[in-house]
Amino acid sequence: MAIESCQSTNSKKIKIAAVDSSYIITGKITGLDSGWAYLYHDQSIPEIIDSAKIDSGFFVFKGKTNVPELYSFLLPMANGFKLSRFDFFVENGLLSISGTKDSINKAVVSGSSTQEEYKNFMAGRKSLDDEIQKLENLYRVVEAKKDKRLLDSLDKIIDLINRKRKDYVKEYVKQHPSSYVAAFQVCQNFSYNPDAAEMENIYSNFDSTIQHSYFGKKIKDLLEIAKKTAIGSQAPDFSLSDVNRKQVSLSSFKGKYILVDFWASWCGPCRRENPNLVEAFKKYHAKGFDILGVTIDENKDDWIKAIKSDKLTWTHVQDLKDTASRLYGVQGIPMSFLLDKEGKIVAKGLRGEELEKKLAELVK
Predict the structure, then answer these.
(1) Model-level pTM?
(2) Do 215 and 266 fall within a single domain?
(3) What is the pLDDT of residue 80?
């Protein structure tokens, strides 16, 4: 979500919502006497930013929405660059926001039944979310000590809790087939490496109103991509520039087992996974295994520096326009697709031991 335009305090540069509005949002931010507040409609096409002048902490937004939508409330900080924000569901009617300048993410929204549903959903899943947070905090401590065995164990536990969170969402969808909150949560929890059969089942549980909504269409898009990149499918071909600006196509690797690895120099989990890829490449390259690294880095120097630093001796290409990322529905990195000699997808999202086991099975 581009937010550069949100940083301006010049109201003439901001698109103001229509006067004949169907919702009114009044608010009070304690500790902020003046300035501007912004409301970002990122579900609108084109995206819209509304502005409201703050007077003694008070502000008013007016607008119109045909269905409940997820908006972002934004406050520019003193340096003019950093933004404080929180997301909430808006629907027609009288809504209010109450918060403090130093903890805007804890602001209270009232008047929106969909927002109330969202709060109840999050409260119901709080124990799982808290457990994940504790594990992630522990992960950072263990990571600093470079204890690989414990890190691997924590990864498995975190995956298990995340699976429970997904199951919570799936059950919520079954019980609330007309819920915008449920559709939003599906997008939040199932975007990374979606399974086609699972997504088909989830999508079919929604009623037609939700299926045709903003988040319903996003789920449908995820489903279609998942079908195209399902195990057994022919991998979509693409061609991108390598470090020397030479075009490299995925199809040129046909006849080998190849791992298409989406990553970036700034991605911590990607960099932690690189040693495993180095070992796999050393062990299986002579037997017909190769890797095609696809970076989403924008900075070429950082990309090349990471390649050299991590000793990644295979072919690398740069996906500046998200050509391959969109083609494969990559919503998070690291993400990989293992292809057989005919270019068919045989596995997805393999890391560490899982990749080693699969290669030992396939590459003889």
Answers:
(1) 0.83
(2) no
(3) 53
